[in-house]
Each structure stands twice: as structure tokens, then as C-alpha cells.
Amino acid sequence: MKLQKIDALEARRAELRAITGQRAAVAYKNQDARVRAIFDSPNTNDGLRTARLIDRANSSLYQALADLAAVNAQLTDQRNQIEDQRKQQQDVLDQINAGSNVLYENVAAVMQALGPPVLIDGMVCPLPGAAYAKDFGAPRSGHTHQGNDMFAPTGTPELAVVNGNVTYGDGGGGGMGAYIAGDDGNRYVYYHLSAYVGPPRHVTAGEVIGKVGSTGDASGPHLHFEIHPFGGPAIDPYPTLQRICG
User: Fold this and answer.
1) Would you tell me which CATH number, out of the four given (2.70.70.10, 3.40.50.300, 1.20.1200.10, 3.50.50.60), belongs to the domain 131-245?
2) pTM of the entire structure?
3) Which residue did the predictor score with more confidence, 103 or 156?
């Protein structure tokens, strides 16, 4: 909105500059005309009328100059406001980034204190100790459930199930999502996160990648977990979870 206002003020300033330029040129040419009009006119009334017209022209020039000065002041004010907003937004972004770094370091420290996760056939349980449902294929609004739900309190760390590249992004009804392109060629999906932990990167199985939440279409905190062999359609992850989570 402010940028649109600046564009409008810039257009008005250009218009006023053209007007004042034209009027200043006329005023310069007629700078002695007022006096000549009074003294050189054969008719006093005609001379006075001409002088008044010149006064009006000069007054229009002064008004245009005043308008131009006002527009310049408004432009300066709008630009200062935008600059202040940008600084405030950058401060907030810096705080968020600092908070994310602290969160990442704290969670990593906690997980390290708990000891290394159990590695089974190169895989780690994505949510150790959580209860999970055998609900793959269950009916949902307009589709069937494409994963298994694992239940834990909000903020519980979620772990990379395998080595691979993790990315993050909006999952629509899945809310905040994490996606692992596994070194094993499979794709693993985590939905409803409350927070991402760390930037997109290559992770090791057992590394913290996010925290349990209820973002998107979720009635409570849980992890929706999917497995897509070689990036294809989802399969039931329940047998895998039984094997690596117990």
C-alpha cells in the first residue's frame, strides 16, 4: 500500500515539476511586464487588468511550488516509514533466526544426553516411545489416509528415519511438513510439525529434524508418517514402524 502511495506521489511530483517549469519560464519572461503594463498602457484600467493577470500567473507559480514542496515532504516521509518498517522486519527476522539456532542447539544437546537412537537395518524410529495407529488406508474427507499417525506431546523431537536430504515446506492439510529424500532411494514424509529444526541439509538417521505439533488438518498433536518407495505412491508404513519402533 505504501509503495503504491509512493508511486502516486512520484507521478504527482513529475506533473508538478513540469507545471512549475512552464510557469517559471513564463514568469521569467514577464518579470518586468507588470510594471510596463501599468505605465505603457494608453488606458490605465487596461494596464491594471493586465497587471492583475500577471499577478495571478505569479500566484499560480508560487502555489505550484508550494504543492511541489509538500509532495516532496510526503515522499520523504513515506520512504522513511518504509525504511523503518524494513528495519523492524529485519530485526524480527534476526530474532527468529537466532531463536531457531538456539532451539536447534538445545534439542540436539538433549538428544545427545539421551544417548544415540537405536539403529535397525539402517533405520531409526522417527518418534521413539510414541504410540502409533494402524490406520493406513482409513477413509478421510475426499481421500484415504496415506500414512500412520504417531502420538506424542507437542514439541517432542522427531528424528530422521534414514540418512538423506531433508527439506521443509507447507503440506496443505498436513500443515508444516518435513521431507526426506533417503539415501536408500525412498521418500519419507512427516506432517503436522510445530517447528522445523535446522535448515534443509543432509541428515544422518536419528538426527532431529522437527518437533511434534498439530498444524494443518489435525485435531491434536501427532506425527503423520509416510513412506514412498523410490518416490512413488505411499505404502503402509506399519510393518516398518513395528520393526524399528517396537
Assistant:
1) 2.70.70.10
2) 0.56
3) 156
